[in-house]
Amino acid sequence: MLEFLLCSLVTIFPDYLFRRYWQGKKWGQEINLFSVWYELRYGLTTCLLLTLALITVVFYYHPSATNVRSFFRTVTILPETGGRVSEVLVENGQSVKGGQLLFRLDSASQEAAVLAAKTRILQTEASIPVAEANLAAASATVEMAKANLAQAEYDLDQERELADKNSSAALEQRLVRASNLALVRQNELEAAKANQLAAQERLKEQIPAELETAKASLEQAEAELAKTYIYAGVDGSVEQFTLQVGDYVNPILRPAGILIPEKFSSNKRFLASFGQISAPVIKVGSYVEMSCLSKPFTVIPMVVVDIQDVLPSGQIRQEDRLLDPQIGLLPGSLTVFLEPVYPGSVDEVLTGSTCLANAYSNHHDVLHEGDVGSVERVYLHAVDTLGLVHAIILRIQVFMLPVFSLVLSGH
């Protein structure tokens, strides 16, 4: 409508003045509702074409976006293990600090496991002196077996010497008995050495391994016990937190609540969705004006700080059928990242607010270089000047936004 009114000032209105005062035709006689089209056909046609051209230029070089938001990340309050709540230490809406305990699950079984692991460690440590005593006893047994073997071998040598001299005192039976006794002493020595080696291995390898296993079991039990204490990961506020003592929480089926981080960014960043046709016009550094529902009647100066170089509509993932571009793919929009020109100008805008924005093209640098023709220079000046039309439209929208939101939306 605004574009049509502007165009009518240079088409329909001069045409009407020409016919009214130059040709002397009067409204209601020669000029009436029936003859208006015929009398003003040239002005109406020119106005229509000029309006279409003006709207095209304005919306192409100064695009608008009705979907502008500041997104933020929430942290789910979720225990690592399921259990029944035994203690709740915070309330819904309360501000918390990172590392603050939020609630605790029943930990009777975990505490029993920790106690059992500690007892196993004490038992293993207590077996060390016993193993040392067993090793000492085995070593003494080895020494005693060596002495018995030496005595048996000495007696056997004496019997053999007597037998070699054909002594009457050397009897065959005594020689056999001495030989068997030496063999028994040898076997006793081997058995004592084996017991000594077993005692050494138990003291050196088995008991330390049992002690490490017991310590690992204690660490695992303590880790399971720690899972029953749920802490805040970051500073923020607790929302949708309605836990009561006795409630059952599950890491898959039932989270405990949501933690909204206290600070998302020192400068809030907004994401605007522009049409794909605006890609050649919007550049990093382009000036943008934005208005949000949570801060009505306010136009906030913004600047384009980044432009996503891919369109979400082109995203695919591997599946078992071929991709057909004409099935189920929406056109997609150009994602533009905006930040405020003046720090603090968006502090009163609630994060997640719905906003609208206008972007404005600026050919000042091109015109300043002077390497453009006269026609192009006039055209670029006109294009930049037409941004005023869109700025006026934005301010009309800002003024009417509460009316549409509160009155005309059926509130």
Automatic annotation (TrEMBL):
Pfam families, per database record: BSH_RND
Listed InterPro entries: MdtA-like_BSH (IPR058625), MFP_Efflux_Pump (IPR050393)
Keywords: Coiled coil, Membrane, Transmembrane, Transmembrane helix
Coiled coil spans: 135-162, 186-224
UniProt domain Multidrug resistance protein MdtA-like barrel-sandwich hybrid: residue ranges: 73-250
UniProt superkingdom: Bacteria
SUPFAM superfamilies referenced in this protein's UniProt entry, alphabetically: HlyD-like secretion proteins (SSF111369)
Protein known as: Biotin/lipoyl-binding protein
Lineage: Bacteria, Pseudomonadati, Pseudomonadota, Alphaproteobacteria, Rhodobacterales
